[in-house]
Amino acid sequence: MSTSQYIQIKAAILLAAINILVLVLPVLAQESLAQESLAQESLAQKSIESNENAASVRSDQIEKLRLIIWKRWASVTDSVFFKEYKITSDNWLRKHVPSIPPIRPEEGKAKLTSSFGWRKHPILGKEKFHNGIDLAAAPGQAVYSTAQGIIEKVGYDPIIGNYITLNHTGLFKTIYGHLSATLVKAGKWVDRDQLIGLVGNTGRSTGYHLHYIVKKNNIAVNADPYLFLRYGVGY
Question: Which of 11, 24, 132, 197 could form a disulfide with 179 if both were Cys (CB 3.0 to 4.6 A apart)?
Answer without folding.
Answer: 197
